[in-house]
Amino acid sequence: LHDKFFADATKAKKYVDLVHFEPFADTADAVTAAAACIDGKVSKSLKSFLKKQLKKSGNGDSLAIADKNLVAGIKDAIPNLPCTMACDSKTNELFRGIRCHLDELMAGGSAGDDG
C-alpha cells in the first residue's frame, strides 16, 4: 500500500485529499481531546466534528481509525454513524503514508477549510 500510493508526495496527493481541518479551540481543548482518545473515548469536539463532517458521507464511505479502542468509543458516542469504520493493517499503512507526506498534503489548507 505504502509503495503503491505513497512512494512520493505527488502520488500521495493523487489519492489523499484534505477534506476539512478544524483546529482546537485552545490548548485545554486539545489536551482534553488527546486524553479522551488515549482512553478510547470521544471528546465533545471530536463528536461535533465527526457529526458535522460525516453528514456528507455516502453509502460505501469508510472512516479510517488509527486506534481500535477509539472505534468502540465512536460507536458509543455516535450510534447511527452514516459510514463504516476501518481499523486494520491497511489503515495503519494509510496513516503511515499520510504522516510521511503530511506537510505536502496540508499545503494550501487553512483552519476551518472545507475541500
TrEMBL record:
<dbReference type="InterPro" id="IPR045056">
    <property type="entry name" value="Nop56/Nop58"/>
</dbReference>
<dbReference type="GO" id="GO:0031428">
    <property type="term" value="C:box C/D methylation guide snoRNP complex"/>
</dbReference>
<feature type="domain" description="Nucleolar protein 58/56 N-terminal">
    <location>
        <begin position="4"/>
        <end position="40"/>
    </location>
</feature>
<dbReference type="GO" id="GO:0032040">
    <property type="term" value="C:small-subunit processome"/>
</dbReference>
<dbReference type="Pfam" id="PF08156">
    <property type="entry name" value="NOP5NT"/>
</dbReference>
<dbReference type="InterPro" id="IPR012974">
    <property type="entry name" value="NOP58/56_N"/>
</dbReference>
<protein>
    <recommendedName>
        <fullName>Nucleolar protein 58/56 N-terminal domain-containing protein</fullName>
    </recommendedName>
</protein>
<dbReference type="GO" id="GO:0030515">
    <property type="term" value="F:snoRNA binding"/>
</dbReference>
